[in-house]
């Protein structure tokens, strides 16, 4: 099947770290982009991108923005906001767009979830798409992302894919792991405390965006078996991760670049890995290896975290 489409793919959060990369990945595959943002002039300034300003949680706007679309990719979650805001935007708002897409006959709905929905306590072991999810006592981000996934799964008749990446590496002012977390580590010694051999699961944003684009344009065929492709008319979870790395890899690289010392501890920690057999069966494999990703991280921080 060709991954070239003539109808646009809707991308929410098109000005964010992941959303902007998804826009670029779609354009590389010949797919025009309808970029949903909240502020005029915020969408990527690229040929083939149509900016649309509005709130996807508004049913009237959602119905308008998906008309004639080949697919939808949602990347918006207000990380760091209070629980009520995260719930309103993600748990309530995202299914509004999903229902509008289903009613408009959009073929694919791709949602950026997270591996944070899984229980990764010290005893959790290996984590595949059937692994246990977090309980209600987890942090607000994990719980609201879990509940958003549940809400999307309840949108009957929609072919939905929940992409579940762990830490997303990649340069950008809003990048949690390349910019925001290192900024905190530069000033707060507690942020530099970690178990060195504990798992640090990760994926590079470019590999994540490439898979989102492939699924959105239908380059990965639908199937009646999640092990071979998105299940037609149903909701399919998909882990997206690079090979296992450790906290020593990440924290050590950041501290070296910042010229500060990590504090290594010895306590119970998760040492499993995110299993990606399903994604690989769908034809995806990461292109950016750990050495490349950490080199990019180190280079970006060499003169200090971004202000």
Automatic annotation (TrEMBL):
Pfam families: Epimerase
GO molecular function: aldehyde dehydrogenase (NAD+) activity
Family matches, as SUPFAM superfamilies: NAD(P)-binding Rossmann-fold domains
All residue ranges annotated as the NAD-dependent epimerase/dehydratase domain in the record: 9-215
CC annotations in GO: cytoplasm
Entry superkingdom: Bacteria
PANTHER family (UniProt xref): NAD(P)-BINDING DOMAIN-CONTAINING PROTEIN-RELATED (PTHR48079:SF6), PROTEIN YEEZ (PTHR48079)
The protein's name: NAD(P)-dependent oxidoreductase
The organism of origin for this protein: Nocardioides acrostichi
């Amino acid at each position: 099947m060709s991954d070239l489409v003539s109808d646009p793919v809707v991308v929410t959060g098109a000005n964010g770290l992941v959303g902007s990369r998804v826009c670029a990945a779609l354009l590389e595959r010949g797919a025009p982009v309808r970029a949903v943002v909240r502020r005029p002039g915020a969408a990527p300034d690229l040929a083939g991108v149509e900016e649309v300003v509005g709130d996807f949680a508004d049913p009237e706007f959602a119905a308008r923005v998906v008309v004639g679309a080949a697919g939808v990719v949602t990347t918006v979650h207000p990380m760091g906001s209070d629980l009520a805001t995260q719930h309103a935007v993600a748990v309530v708002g995202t299914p509004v767009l999903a229902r509008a897409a289903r009613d408009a006959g959009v073929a694919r709905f791709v949602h950026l979830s997270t591996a944070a929905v899984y229980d990764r306590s010290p005893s959790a072991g290996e984590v595949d798409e059937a692994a246990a999810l977090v309980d209600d006592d987890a942090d607000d981000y994990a719980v609201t992302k879990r509940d958003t996934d549940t809400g999307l799964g309840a949108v009957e008749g929609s072919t939905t894919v929940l992409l579940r990446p762990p830490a997303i590496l990649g340069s950008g002012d809003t990048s949690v792991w390349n910019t925001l977390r290192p900024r905190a580590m530069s000033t707060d010694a507690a942020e530099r405390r970690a178990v060195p051999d504990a798992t640090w699961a990760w994926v590079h944003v470019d590999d994540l965006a490439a898979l989102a684009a492939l699924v959105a344009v239908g380059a990965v065929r639908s199937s009646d078996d999640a092990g071979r492709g998105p299940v037609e008319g149903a909701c399919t979870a998909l882990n997206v991760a690079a090979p296992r790395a450790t906290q020593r890899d990440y924290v050590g690289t950041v501290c070296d670049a910042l010229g500060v010392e990590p504090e290594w501890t010895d306590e119970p920690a998760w040492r499993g890995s995110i299993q990606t057999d399903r994604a690989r069966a769908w034809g995806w494999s990461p292109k950016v290896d750990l050495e490349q990703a950490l080199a990019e991280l180190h280079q970006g921080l060499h003169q200090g975290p971004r202000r």
